[in-house]
Amino acid sequence: MKQLTTFRNQFDFQSIRWKDMIRWFPGHMHRGMKDLEQSLSTVDGIIEVHDARIPHSGRNTQLYQRLVGGHKPHVLILNKSDLADPNYLNKSIEYIQSEQPNTQVIHTSLASIDMKEMTNLFGRLLQQIVESPRYTRSSTVEYNIVVCGIPNVGKSTFINKLRNLFANKASCEQVGASPGVTRKMSEKVKISNRPKVFVRDTPGILEPRLKSADESFRLLLTNSIPIQQRELSDIIADYGLFLLNKYDKQRLYMKYCELDKPSDDILPVLLSLAKIKHCTQIYRDKRGYDLTGTALHFINEINKGTFGQITFDQDILDEKENEKLNDTNLFKTNSGRIKRSI
Ligand SMILES: Nc1nc2c(ncn2[C@@H]2O[C@H](COP(=O)(O)OP(=O)(O)OP(=O)(O)O)[C@@H](O)[C@H]2O)c(=O)[nH]1
User: Fold this and answer.
1) Ligand 1 pocket: which residues have CB below 6 Å?
2) What region holds the G domain (predicted)?
3) I need a surface site. Which of 272, 299, 307, 340 has the fewest CB within 10 A?
4) Ligand 1 atom having least distance to the Cα of 109
5) Does the reported pTM lie above 0.90?
6) In the chain, where does the domain assigned CATH 3.40.50.300 lie?
7) Are 32 and 205 in contact (CB under 8 A)?
8) Do the Cβ atoms of 230 and 292 come closer than 8 Å?
9) What's the ipTM?
10) Which numeric CATH code is attached to 24-201?
């Protein structure tokens, strides 16, 4: 008889004290937020970069409320679209614009963007900023843009692409696979002459308090919060497996980990992977499999897209879409015509 595999509907956060485990709001973030606020009077536009796989999780609402406040032109780049589910890219834009109607949202993959696409992208961003009223800064002829967002979403990559494109300069912002590479607000960098446009990079800033366990784990999984305690890595890998089973119907991880059936338990997955990768360590004079290292490897592969393009916030986007459908309160009459209920 064919064995059925049942999958978890919910991840069990109860057995882990995730709030104690994940506290990450280093001093440079607090300082970064202050610097940003202080520079606001000279800023003409805010470009926020976020990870397209988590259009809801980790969006720093303080950034929006305290910086944009409905007055400054605000463009949101949903980056790393190469890793997100293509079916959810437009849904993500709709979701964000329903919450922040004045924000222009664009999705892209800055890692693989070509010169032409980058020129188009920058043209669209600039148009939004140039066409907006400048109030106190109407007399100046230069435009100052700040690039902000949470850690590891591609802010420095964006600025480097701009510099390469317009100023013909080599990359200057440090890009890194781990979060928190940029520690302070950069000096302004001229990227275009006509009109004169300057950009400034900022450190990744998270909200001081994370809203839920799911949100925190999605930030850990996408590398926006560093995994400071290695012991946490198998739980995060397990959370990744939970999402892969939920959202990747092809179960691509099975092939990579050489499993003959999907698993809802991370242990057999890690054991198989450790064997394939010869990931071992010596513990109390005995050599055994290094499951912590293997868990980090598994998380890394998720972030390389090895297990497919996955949007981790699908549940939130679907819920919002259902709410919208219910709100319209439509029903069909016998004749098949749609009427609005009273
Ligand atoms: N797959 C993929 N990776 C990307 C993309 N854009 C940037 N990255 C990678 O994401 C990582 C973080 O990029 P950064 O530009 O350093 O991100 P940041 O937001 O400046 O990071 P902080 O300095 O931590 O705030 C790097 O490893 C980049 O190569 C993308 O479109 N797709």
Assistant:
1) 79-80, 82-83, 109-111, 149, 151-157, 175-177, 179-182, 203-204
2) 145-213
3) 340
4) 31
5) no
6) 24-201
7) yes
8) yes
9) 0.98
10) 3.40.50.300
